[in-house]
Amino acid sequence: MDYMQILNNTLERQLKCDMCYSKKISIIKNYIANILYTKKNNSTLEKIIETIYNSKGTAHIKDIAMTLHITPRQVERILKTYIGISPKKLSELIQFKASIDLLKNYNLSLVEVAVASGYFDQAHFIKNFKRFCGITPECFLKLLPDEIGKSPESPDSCISCFPFKIGNYIKLE
């Protein structure tokens, strides 16, 4: 098992653990940062990652392959070899990060965030958000601290949204 497979397995284990949403987001951001700085000598890998990142996770694998004059299977193989995850999983992570940035920094409705992040619809956005974060976007917004323009609410107001015990995990920073 190479370094990237170990990193990928660790990521999956970390995200499955009961922890606060901000810790999960931090783990995903660090994982993406590691991806961006891994194997810099592979220009094809760099171009694939750059394309996915610049599209905020919405680039199609066929389009990336066509642009780089390689097959979609080669795109998959390169990412699996060097990063340990599929192009789809990387795109989902980057798309999720883009949606978090929009939620935290702009006063947009969930529909606007979904559209701006490249999701098909609001339901798809909410489903993916819950998969990565463990809570709904509404609960996430209620828990954001004052300094980013949202009014904070008690974590208890979102207790029905959380799949784990609030008091032990949530620390607003």
Secondary structure layout:
Blueprint: H1 3-16, H2 21-37, H3 43-54, H4 61-68, H5 72-82, H6 87-105, H7 110-116, H8 122-133, H9 137-143, H10 166-169
Helix pairs in contact: 1-2, 2-6, 4-5, 7-8
Give a verbal description of the structure.
The chain is globular and about 45 Å long. Mean pLDDT is 75; it is low at 146-173. The protein has helices at 3-16, 21-37, 43-54, 61-68, 72-82, 87-105, 110-116, 122-133, 137-143, 166-169. It has 173 residues and is an all-alpha fold. Helices cover 64% and strands 0% of the residues. The chain has 10 helices and no strands. The termini are far apart.
Question: Could you give a quick summary of the protein structure above?
Answer:
The chain is mainly alpha-helical and 173 residues long.
Instruction: Show unreliable segments.
Output: 146-173
Oligomer: single chain
Say how many strands there are.
0
Range of strand content: under 5%
Alpha-carbon distance between the two ends: 36 Å
Share of helical residues? 55-70%
Number of helices: 10
- Chain-averaged pLDDT: 75
The largest sheet is:
none
Query: Secondary-structure element sequence?
Result: HHHHHHHHHH
Radius of gyration: 17 Å
The outline comes out as globular
Q: Structural class of the secondary structure composition?
A: mainly alpha
